[in-house]
């Protein structure tokens, strides 16, 4: 239960217990197993918001409201990771330079451009999903995306000597990843058509395989920023695939 509360506190603005802190690195790492459940909560709130807004506003305005709420509920945590990752990976020529740029609190042109493009992709996909009233599609994105940290931490080492995500990543193991996968897939089975689930599974597996190889090639591991970027990229992919399926 503590790991679930840690996951909720880490990923969102919600905190059910004041002054909750991990008792060990292992406990913090195990919180990743419950990230998909937090994703389901986020997705449910976003879907309910989309449903309510769609009865009052055009689908485009509803999509903007959903994205704004998503940003507020997560404190823009993963968006910041995407910006830092884009700046570092596109601006650094070697491992040390990439890590140094990613640690810089200032956001560069690559980071801003990546965030803008990501929001445009999400907006376009959500506008279609909301206009077709396929609200389960909104829930799928946050669930699948938040399986990623557990999987990546089990495969890749932490790329820095120190960092905020070191405890989670360095203690990552396949048992944590398998629990995250089981919870994520189990939640999706409740509302996602099997054909859609298989398509999303294959597409997500391909994206993650490419990212894992790229992170290993460039940095020899993963960082908290890269995990955040992976979550944002996965969400964008899932919503885009669902959107494309609706328009076929």
UniProtKB/TrEMBL annotation:
UniProt-recorded name of the protein: Adenosylcobinamide-GDP ribazoletransferase
Record gene name: cobS
Main location, first listed in the record: membrane
InterPro entries: CobS
HAMAP family per record: CobS
Family to which the UniProt record says this protein belongs: Belongs to the CobS family.
Pathway in which the depicted protein is active: Cofactor biosynthesis; adenosylcobalamin biosynthesis; adenosylcobalamin from cob(II)yrinate a,c-diamide: step 7/7
Cellular compartment(s): Cell membrane
